[in-house]
């Protein structure tokens, strides 16, 4: 049975803009990395302060029920850019630094859509969606296909995460500092000691390219590149996708941010992120006179906070990464995918407003399409939230949302106030406290979190095999009410099964899946 039958309202075609060409806004989308729901002072954090991001919230709308397409980095970024659930290509876990491009070059996405509408487009920051065809060869010039082949006029990216090889920058598909006489190798002898906090060191070869990659200066570098690109824009509308490596591990803030928070490196790195946002917003405002347009600014995160080593230290210092939400990155509990989302657009988005309606980052594509008057293929999961961000609706435009984790066993669904999970636990990392990435019920004795199905970090013998939560009355997911509302659970289970039936029977993409957070 078609998913459209179940998830009505998620398919749309847009054909005319609400704005004259001269009134089309610039769009700046800032997508933070691993920033949790409780990691901003405007979302309740007290052990760190984020005045620049808080100011965005004061000048725009702050969303309290916004979700990333997945609780995992690469699938989340795929969904954000394409307007489709990552399950549509069987993408579950992070891609490696040597994975092929996951977005087809003829596939509609934010960059191609806006470029077609006359926008200048750029991506600066973390890519993490694969490059090239087959195993990536960084010694090709340029490495294709990549961001420039799906609609970005300019790209300056780190290929993967800041914690995995190859630890280089790429500009328009070419390795910055590439030396044909010293090719980059996948593996081999590490030529230099790992930087503090970076256990992986550097892969063999490409010494010059690696020397240009300084973990502690990435924030400064991305800000400089972003402001330079913004300043170079003239009358045309522009789209900047700034995907920060903050606050993904390793935590390597510029030294001037060291010790500025009350929750260790975790908070210090968040402080640098806040500074980055402030600098980019200042550049947008300074360039307004030359560009002559208002700018739609969106700030959000690719998934929830991760309880890694620094995250655990921050927790012990009194900082709760995801606020009152249960769960962390990689898992399907709310803390894994409910994320900060702030939208500012002077004259169109109400200032100082809070929205409690259900929204998803996969909806950005359809929203942008309605703004610029571009048609979309009918079968996308994206739905325009333009009326929502403009404060013109009371009820949610989206009633149902598939929520995804690292595990295909935990394909789940949000609908109105309900969260249904067809399995136990969270579907993400389940290592014990003290390991690099922890989560699940076994950390409850350390975090102080609790659930009526769990005792001392283990499930009761008679605990249900699935989970249902009333988030309106129990946002922290302390009580599984599936035995009290079996009919609701049955209806939602059918919707989950309908979605799973449409997942292609191809090999799963991503280096971890269905292994409880462990590598295959």
UniProtKB/TrEMBL annotation:
Residues 1-20 form the signal peptide. Residues 25-373 form the Sulfatase N-terminal domain. The keyword Iron-sulfur does not apply. Keywords: Calcium, Hydrolase, Metal-binding, Signal. Belongs to the sulfatase family. PANTHER family: ARYLSULFATASE FAMILY MEMBER, ENDO-4-O-SULFATASE. This is Arylsulfatase. It comes from Rubritalea spongiae.
